[in-house]
Every structure is written in C-alpha cells, then in structure tokens.
Amino acid sequence: MKNYSTRRNIGAVIALGTSAALLAACSSDSTTEPEATTAETAAAQSVSDATPRIATSYDGGVLILDARTLDTVEDISGIEGFTRLNPAGDGRHVFVSGSGAFTALDAGTWTDGSQHYTATPALTDIAFDATTPGHVVRHDGKTVLFDDGTGKVEMFDSAALLTGSKPETESYTTPEAHHGVAVELSDGSLLTTVGNEDERIGIVVLDADRKEIARNEECPGVHGEAVAADETVVVGCEDGLLIYRNGAITKVQSPDAYGRIGNQAGDEESPILLGDYKVDPDAELERPTRVSLTNTVTGELSLVDLGTSYTFRSLERGPAGEAIILGTDGALHVIDVNTKAVTRTIPVVDAWEEPTEWQEPRPALFVQDGTAYVSDPAENAVRAVDLATGNVTATGELAHTPNELTGVTG
After folding, report:
1. For 127-135, what is the mean pLDDT?
2. Angstrom distance (rounded) from CA 381 to CA 363
3. Which of 62, 60, 110 is closest to 80 using CA atoms?
4. Is residue 371's pLDDT more than 90?
5. What's the rounded mean pLDDT across residues 280-293?
6. pLDDT-derived band at 98, boundaries 50, 70, 90
7. 321: how many CB neighbours lie within 10 A of its CB?
8. Cα–Cα distance between 70 and 299 in angstroms, integer?
9. Cα 113 to Cα 101: distance, rounded to the nearest angstrom
10. 3-state SS of 288-325?
C-alpha cells in the first residue's frame, strides 16, 4: 500500500512565479520595475519591506488582511464547505482545506532576495486531492499533508510553491486510513500516526527508505503533533504523550488515568511543550482550565491552572518561547515555561463561551513576529496585540464573522 515518487531536487527557487488564477487577479500597476521578467512582474508591486498578511476564514470564503493595519486586502468568496486554514510553509501561501483538496491560496506577498513584492491575493490552481483533508505540518523546509480519508501522506519542499507550479511530491500511504498526522524529519525519516477508522493507538517511524525503525502503540486516541528543540517530535494521547527523540520513543504518563493531551504548541528552540489537558472521558464538551507543560528531555509533565477555560484554537508560543493561551475570559495568559508561572494577563476581547460544535466560530489565537492576533466573532473583528508591550495596536473591522486564523510573513 506504499506509494513513492522520486523527489525532484529543486535548486534556486524563482520566487516570482504564480498560478494563472493569481495572474488574472493581479493589478497592472507597478511602482518599480523589478529585474525579473516573469509574467507576474508587470502585475506585482515592489514595496520597501516585507508585508506580512493575515488570513481568516468565514462561512463561504477567506479574508486576507494587512497584518499591521488589519485592513482587508481581499475578500475571496465562493469557497464551499467548512474551510480550514494552515500556513503552507513558504511565507506566501496558505492552504485551504476543504471540498476534497488542499488548495494553495496566494496571499499576494513575498520576498525575492532583497526585493519585496505584493499583489492581489487569490486562490491558485495548485491543489492536492484529498478525500478528507486533515493536518498540514511544516518542518525543516518540508510541508507534509495528511488525508484522513485514505491515509495518504504527501511531502514536498515548501519553497517549491514559489515556482507557481504544483510541486513534485513524495507520497506514502498508511496501512489503514484514520484521522492522523505525519512529520518528515531532516534525515528523511517519516513519523506517522497508527490507527484506523475505529481507533488510533500510536506512532511509527520509518527511515528514508520507508523501513520501520521505531514503533509505539501505547497511545490511545493519538492526536496532534508538535516539534520541540533538537528535532523532538511529540504527539498527544488520552493518557499522556509520546516523545520521539534521538531515534527512540518514550511515553510520558498523565497524572490522571484519563489525562488527554490532544492539542500541542511547540517551539523548536525550547524543550518544553505546551499542551491542553482534559480529564473527563464522558464529557460531551469539557471546558478545561489547566494546561500542560512537558519537558521533552526529562519527561516531567506539569499542570498550570489558568482560572479560566480555553479551546483548541487557544494555544500558541511567543517569540521567546513563552506559552500564550487565549482564555474564555477574553484575555491572553502568558506563561514562563521554565518557572511555570503566569507572568502576564492581557485583556483583548469580551468574555465568551465555547460553542458546542467545534466548527462554530469562537475567538482564535495566532502569533506571528511578536504580535498576537485574536479574532472576535462577536464583533466581526480581529485585534493585534504587541506582546512586548501588551498593547492592542490595531483592530480590523470585518465584513464577515471570522473563524480560523493564520498568516504569512511575506
């Protein structure tokens, strides 16, 4: 059931390429003529510095915002089905997951050497077919897509998206389809979850030739992934975590018989992993108030009580590796992961309650370049918080109710 294709060796990437969809949508204005002579050059606009942008989904489309002002740059409508958003890994594209494919959305901002450009955002024709598009993982310059419906994993060089054509991929299919995730490591090895449509039980690690080198099936309900320092990969279980480090898998047990850690936020410079923590296996919707901090070197797992609940869209890491959690009290709670102390609480939006259906809009958190972006569905807005000062630096008023939130650096 394994399927491979040879990965193309992509050398110098031409960062000015794009799809026909973007070319048709771009403006013809140009303030400075770049040296490159691709078709997009005439449509792109040269700018003085990198222009980060934010993407937020709504029912039927995606809004692209200027990350500094939060003004709406483009409203991309007509997207069918529930839309999930993930950065593609190249600083320019966002993957839109839904309607049977992972589709690249060009946010219209990029850097080529020392030159910076912007253009009109648009959905591209770069799409990876998937029965049930699931997790998108970026690590070590690679992007990995996981199709829950078939178990197919597709891997490619993230920067290859900048050529404007669909990247050549390597693919692997898990023995049984399941809601899973995969991570490609720097040595070419591949970590994937193990499971089927009835249960998920652990992880397996395959070398560059896709021969098994490690396996652990003591992780009921395995879900999510994060990468910590020294290329340590962590996945969550209903009773703790599995840590893959230096070629070996170890289990960290939760302090409770049922202590589910299903969502994680890692920092590749920090050995400490931030995770959620739930203890009621029978709850239709548990609203936890504690988060987990796990030292991936020692295996020590600690719990920090925030005094407020949070959701799966509430966990992020700051520029110094600090843990940042958006609480239902409307505030950002900043934790020093070394001392395990809440060092600051920053009010951002009004208090809110998590909806029963996970697809329903609720405030979401995304951190990029020292700024925390918080969506505010109740006000149809997105707010930017400078994490150095704690000040709200911009508020974007939206034409639609925001749901998922992500961004690109430009």
Report:
1. 96
2. 10
3. 60
4. yes
5. 96
6. confident
7. 19
8. 40
9. 31
10. CCEEEEEECCCCCEEEEECCCCEEEEEEEECCCCCEEE
Query: Which amino acid is present at 255?
Result: P
What type of residue is 108? G
Residue with tokens 């070419």: 188
The band of 368, judged by pLDDT with boundaries at 50, 70 and 90, is very high
Closest residue by Cα to residue 134 from 225, 269, 211, 246: 225
Query: If residue 193 lies in a helix (H) or strand (E), which one and from where to where?
Result: strand 190-195
Structure tokens given for 255: 């302090």
SS3 24: helix
- Tell me the C-alpha to C-alpha distance, in Å, between residue 318 and each of 259, 347, 367, 371: 25, 16, 7, 8
C-beta of residue 395 within 8 angstroms of C-beta of residue 387 = no
Q: For tokens 């040595």, what's the residue? A: 187
Strand ranges across the sheet with 240-245: 223-228, 232-237, 240-245, 248-253
* Residue 125, helix vs strand vs coil: strand
Looking at residue 383, its pLDDT comes to: 98
